Amino acid sequence: MSSLHDAARRLARLDAGEVLQEEPLARHCSWRIGGPADILVQPSSCDQAARVLRFAREEGLPLVVIGRGTNLLFADEGFRGVIMKLGRRFSDFEIDGLTVRARAGLWVPRLVRNLAAAGLSGLEHAAGIPGSVGGLVTMNGGSLRRCVGDRIVDVLAVGYSGEMRVFSREECGFSYRRSVFQDSAGFCGDRWVILEARLVLERGRRSEVRAEAVGIMEERRKKFPLRLPNCGSVFTNDPAVYELAGPPGKVVEDTGLKGLTVGGAQVSHHHANFIVNRGGATARDVLSLIGEVRRRVHARIGAWLACEVRYVAPDGTVAPASEACGEL
Ligand SMILES: Cc1cc2nc3c(=O)[nH]c(=O)nc-3n(C[C@H](O)[C@H](O)[C@H](O)COP(=O)(O)OP(=O)(O)OC[C@H]3O[C@@H](n4cnc5c(N)ncnc54)[C@H](O)[C@@H]3O)c2cc1C
């Protein structure tokens, strides 16, 4: 315990942003689940972020970077290492002609709103996605079969030794809900943390861009269970499974699993690809429920659903939650 206090004190002395100890991770994710992180630090500049990474490497501490925690399930035991959160304090943006440079912590709905106000079209499909730019780029997120990667010019990232690198769009390795940044999340090897993304858009009419974004948000409000804590879509839309049985929400619903409950976690009655926290759900409940859904779906259609949601283990391993539920 005292070595943890010492490490936190050393980090605070480095001027690397606000440092919290034993911080409940449930406060930093949309499922409202997760035990304490030894250290949680929130840098507000690129230099501070680089300092945090160098510190973690020199101290031999595992590090996981997070945005708004809207695609993450934290372990009930929490995390023995450093969580670096790039959020509200790291959220500047600058529009220049048809391009926008956005800091990783920028809230996506704020970016979409500002692009609409500037009459820039191309990211309306991300209206209402409640994550950060860093999380959106890492997950290559989007909706209506579109992905943020289609609009990326380049990405500025910082490595584990504090070195900066610009990734061209091709180097980001985008494919459906995938990017190279996922491979480097949460371990002690080659690691790249997104600091900024540059996107290119198209000139549009302000009123039309805004109407498109508002329309998409209204559809989402009708479709998704937004009252109980959740993490968006739990399972990815795998083309092979789609071909066989349809999108994951339909597959889970057709298997008769709406309302299936483990502890405080429940397959939403509203949309079967969502798992909601009805109060007091644990990570163990969610992983058990995911495991049960996967087994029953597999028994019916002969294919395994994979998770979009990522599980952060106490040792800092970050992987699709479907890879973790087999262990329970
Ligand atoms: C109600 C709801 C609706 C949703 N709808 C959609 C949707 O329509 N489409 C969609 O694609 N997603 C959707 N999501 C999921 C989620 O919002 C997106 O994946 C979002 O982009 C994740 O951003 P985040 O900041 O919350 O990332 P986090 O959950 O904090 O992190 C996600 C992953 O990215 C990594 N990461 C985060 N920031 C960085 C960084 N700066 N550098 C490197 N790695 C980083 C993390 O380590 C983690 O592996 C939804 C979620 C909710 C709760």
- How many DSSP-defined strands? 17
**What is the CATH domain class of the largest domain?**
Alpha Beta
The number of distinct helices, counting runs of at least 4 residues, comes to 10
Overall mean pLDDT = 93
- Unreliable runs, pLDDT <50, ≥5 residues? none
The strand line-up of the biggest sheet is 6-7-11-9-10
What structural class do the secondary elements suggest?
Answer: alpha+beta
> How would you sum up the global shape?
globular
**What series of H and E elements makes up the topology?**
HEEHEEEEEHEHEEHEEHHHEEEHEEH
Helix content: 25-40%
Q: Hetero groups bound?
A: flavin-adenine dinucleotide
CATH architecture label name of the largest domain: 2-Layer Sandwich
Strand fraction band? 15-25%
What is the topological layout?
Blueprint: H1 2-13, E1 18-24, E2 36-42, H2 46-59, E3 63-66, E4 72-74, E5 79-85, E6 93-96, E7 99-103, H3 108-117, E8 120-121, H4 133-139, E9 152-159, E10 164-168, H5 180-183, E11 192-200, E12 202-203, H6 206-223, H7 239-245, H8 248-254, E13 261-262, E14 265-267, E15 275-277, H9 283-301, E16 310-312, E17 318-320, H10 321-324
Parallel strand pairs: 2-5, 3-5, 4-16
Antiparallel strand pairs: 1-2, 6-7, 7-11, 8-12, 9-10, 9-11, 13-14, 14-15, 16-17
The structure holds flavin-adenine dinucleotide.
Task: Give a structural overview.
The chain is an alpha+beta fold and 328 residues long. The protein has three domains: 87 residues, Uridine Diphospho-n-acetylenolpyruvylglucosamine Reductase, domain 2 (2-Layer Sandwich), CATH 3.30.43; 133 residues, Uridine Diphospho-n-acetylenolpyruvylglucosamine Reductase, domain 3, CATH 3.30.465; 89 residues, Uridine Diphospho-n-acetylenolpyruvylglucosamine Reductase, domain 1 (Alpha-Beta Complex), CATH 3.90.78. The protein is 31% helix and 23% strand. The strands form five sheets. The protein has a five-stranded antiparallel sheet with strand order 6-7-11-9-10. The protein is globular. 47% of the residues are buried. Bound molecules: flavin-adenine dinucleotide.
